[in-house]
Amino acid sequence: MPASITLSSLSFALPDGRVLFSDLNFSFNQERIGLLCQNGVGKSALLRL
């Protein structure tokens, strides 16, 4: 069985109440992926979770 990570209905808000993402669904398999977006939109927060 190949390794994978699945995120289902993931939400995250900062302590000040600002929502970074809501109802996020992803599935990662054994491949390289990249997250490309503007600064401050939650890429690092997502990876820390």
Question: What is the makeup of the main sheet?
Answer: 2 strands, antiparallel
Total helices: the number is 1
Order of helices and strands: EEH
Q: Report the β-strand fraction as a percent range.
A: 35-45%
The number of domains = 1
Secondary structure class reads: mainly beta
Largest sheet, spatial ordering of strands: 1-2
Rounded Rg:
12 Å
Q: What is the number of E strands?
A: 2
What's the oligomerization state?
single chain
What is the end-to-end distance?
24 Å
**Low-pLDDT segments:** none
In short:
This protein is mainly beta and 49 residues long.
Polypeptide structure, described:
With 49 residues, the protein is mainly beta. It has one domain. Helices cover 12% and strands 39% of the residues. It has a two-stranded antiparallel sheet with strand order 1-2. The mean pLDDT is 86.
Task: Detail the topology: elements first, then pairings.
Layout: E1 5-13, E2 19-28, H1 43-48
Antiparallel strand pairs: 1-2
Features:
49 residues; two-stranded antiparallel ribbon; 2 strands
